[in-house]
Write a structure and sequence with these properties.
single chain, 5 helices, 30% helix, globular, binds ligand V0V
Length: 155
């Protein structure tokens, strides 16, 4: 027979479920006015290696990933002025636009965060860098930080 105490112990909190699901800082995203200039700066100045480039029409971004150990910085340029990056650059200027948490399962992570009362920007995950699945927590719910969830594509 379960007592109240037993129930409290066996029902996991959102943190207990999310702990093993969130595994790393996948990347930190920098909004930049010129992606090529930014690539040149970070490769020459910090010796970072460019590992991936693509444009994501849906997100309105051109992006470049530069490796730092197991993590990356993501240089984000605007394809359109009315895109998220275009508006960010216009309102705030260049700088850190997002921090991306790598997750093992974006559906589990998103649902747990919704259950905890946080606003996820998308109903369903969308396609991100290199075929990953992504979603975002609104910055108003994360102390002013735009937190991205990334489930990397299976290789
Ligand atoms: C806006 N705010 C931010 C912010 N953007 N706070 C922190 N970090 C940011 N990046 C604040 C802003 O100062 C306002 O605060 C409030 O949120 C509403 O801002 P807004 O200018 O009206 O902006 P919105 O509502 O038009 O858009 C904000 C959101 C938008 C976050 C909803 O940027 C968005 O949909 N982002 C998700 C998509 C994205 O970022 N895509 C580009 C990366 P006050 O003034 O009200 O206090 S694509 C990507 O990362 C990929 C492909 C990948 O990694 O794979």
């Amino acid at each position: 027979m379960y007592t109240r105490h037993d129930t409290a112990v066996t029902t996991p909190t959102p943190a207990q479920v999310l702990g093993p699901v969130v595994t790393a800082i996948d990347h930190v995203g920098f909004a930049v006015p010129d992606v090529d200039e930014a690539i040149a700066f970070y490769t020459r100045t910090f010796g970072l290696t460019l590992v991936h480039e693509e444009s994501n029409e849906e997100q309105g971004v051109r992006e470049a990933m530069l490796a730092i150990g197991d993590s990356q910085i993501q240089l984000l340029g605007a394809l359109r002025p009315d895109s998220a990056i275009g508006k960010f650059l216009d309102k705030r200027g260049p700088g850190i636009q997002q921090v991306a948490f790598r997750v093992t399962d974006i559906t589990v992570a998103s649902q747990r965060l919704r259950d905890a009362g946080l606003h996820l920007l998308y109903e369903e995950p969308r396609i991100g860098t290199a075929g990953s699945l992504i979603n975002f927590v609104h910055p108003k719910d994360c102390g002013g930080v735009l937190v991205e969830l990334v489930e990397p594509a299976a290789h």
